[in-house]
């Protein structure tokens, strides 16, 4: 009875929150088959439509969210270039409501227990968990690597045996894009596994003996908090751009092909690159954390969702990096380990050809500026069945398979760079 009362109270609070209403919003899928259709979609992406997946190549599906008021216009516009569409989601608002109910019910059932790794959490809850883990586990320390526009600290956990100040470092950046909630959930799970199973799990013990693991569970706290309070589908940070436009995409703000393909100079665009490289606190914080460990960083991993991809540089150009053969070799081993867990299929390769051109990305910068060969961007589950609204029941399988892939990667790095 108490659980039901708590759940109803939480639902009432949620209903009273001033949130953007996505009732009737659809996600449609189109598949470009010609050069004209492909280029049309690239131009359309610059307009006020929310592309859940971007144009990458002929025959690859593109998902677009559209409001009920603009649906007929968009359908007509697509038809003019011969693009037919299928409706993937008829009502995003209902999907968000279902997600909220699932989160609240699980919170009520889990009330009074330890941190729940099979649910989504606010940034305040995530900060509290990281600090508590640091206070209770000798392997973990927490630090603030930057302060956002709205004054939030960007918290980072260091998991280390403390045996050497010159050990290799593996850096994990999660949730640079605010709406990708399964990314921080996965990173928290990995953090906890590393911290609590050292000394009892042989693989984890060997990995932590080899390298320190630095994990930023939410790299864009302002945007992430905004997805909880106001707009579940917000992507960028919350810096005002003048007028009605807010936010820079921190993962277009690194000094790696800055302002090139796949980034926008439109302050209202989801891929707005900002006025100059490292203008955002989020990108600057990651840069500074990497530079503070310059020469020690052997892996830099950027964790996103969705699409089920494991990708290497480059995003700002299709030219393959000099170390691509080694990048590809380790990607193959990592993806095989991930797939062996539950059978989840991932594609892998360089960013520009595997997903889309994307300049100003973090993994391109870590490779170009710091020569981190094992710089990878991951897009976790799924491929569009739920999109950004991945149900809480799928957090643990997603985190488990991702960790298995990352463990395989870490083992290969340790063997290559002893």
Summarize the structure.
With 418 residues, the chain is α/β, with parallel strands linked by helices. It is 39% helix and 16% strand.
Based on the model shown, name its key terms.
418 residues; alpha/beta; eight-stranded mixed sheet; four-stranded antiparallel sheet; 13 helices; globular; disordered N terminus
The total count of strands amounts to 12
| Low-pLDDT residue intervals, each spanning 5 or more residues | 1-10
In DSSP terms (H or I, runs of 4 or more residues), the helix count works out at 13
The main β sheet shows up as: 8 strands, mixed
Output the radius of gyration. 21 Å
Task: Describe the oligomeric state of these chains in a short phrase.
Answer: single chain
Question: Helical amount among residues, as a percent range?
Answer: 25-40%
Give the neighbour order of strands across the main sheet.
5-6-8-7-9-12-10-11
């Amino acid at each position: 009875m108490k659980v039901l009362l708590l759940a109803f109270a939480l639902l009432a609070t949620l209903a009273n929150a001033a949130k953007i209403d996505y009732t009737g919003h659809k996600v449609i899928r189109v598949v470009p088959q010609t050069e004209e259709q492909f280029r049309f979609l690239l131009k359309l992406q610059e307009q006020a439509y929310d592309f859940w997946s971007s144009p990458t190549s002929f025959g690859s599906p593109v998902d677009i969210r559209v409001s009920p008021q603009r649906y007929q216009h968009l359908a007509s516009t697509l038809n003019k270039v011969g693009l037919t569409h299928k409706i993937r989601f008829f009502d995003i608002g209902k999907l968000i409501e279902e997600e909220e109910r699932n989160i609240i019910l699980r919170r009520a059932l889990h009330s009074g227990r330890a941190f729940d790794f099979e649910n989504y959490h606010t940034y305040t809850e995530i900060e509290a968990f990281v600090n508590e883990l640091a206070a209770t586990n000798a392997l973990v320390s927490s630090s603030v690597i930057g302060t956002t526009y709205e004054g939030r600290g960007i918290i980072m956990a260091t998991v280390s045996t403390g045996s050497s100040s010159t050990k290799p470092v593996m850096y994990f950046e999660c949730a640079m894009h605010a709406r990708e909630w399964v990314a921080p959930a996965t990173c928290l799970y990995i953090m906890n596994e590393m911290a609590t199973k050292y000394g009892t799990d042989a693989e984890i013990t060997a990995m932590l003996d080899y390298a320190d693991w630095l994990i930023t569970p939410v790299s864009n706290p302002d945007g992430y908090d905004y997805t909880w309070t106001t707009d579940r589908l917000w992507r960028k940070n919350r810096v005002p751009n003048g007028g009605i436009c807010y936010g820079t995409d921190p993962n277009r703000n690194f000094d790696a092909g800055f302002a090139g393909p796949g980034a926008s100079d439109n302050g209202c665009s989801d891929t707005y690159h900002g006025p100059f490289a490292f203008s955002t606190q989020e990108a600057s914080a990651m840069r500074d954390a990497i530079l503070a460990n310059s020469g020690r960083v052997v892996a830099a991993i950027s964790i996103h969702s969705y699409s089920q991809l494991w990708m290497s540089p480059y995003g700002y150009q299709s030219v393959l990096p000099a170390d691509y053969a080694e990048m590809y070799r380790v990607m193959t081993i990592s993806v095989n380990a991930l797939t062996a867990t539950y059978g989840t299929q991932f594609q892998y390769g360089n960013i520009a050809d595997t997903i889309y051109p994307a300049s100003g990305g973090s993994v391109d910068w870590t490779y170009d500026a710091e020569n981190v060969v094992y710089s990878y961007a991951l897009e976790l589950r799924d491929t569009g069945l739920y999109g950004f609204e991945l149900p809480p029941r799928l957090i643990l399988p997603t985190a488990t398979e991702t960790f298995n892939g990352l463990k395989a990667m870490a083992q290969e790095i340790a063997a290559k760079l002893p």
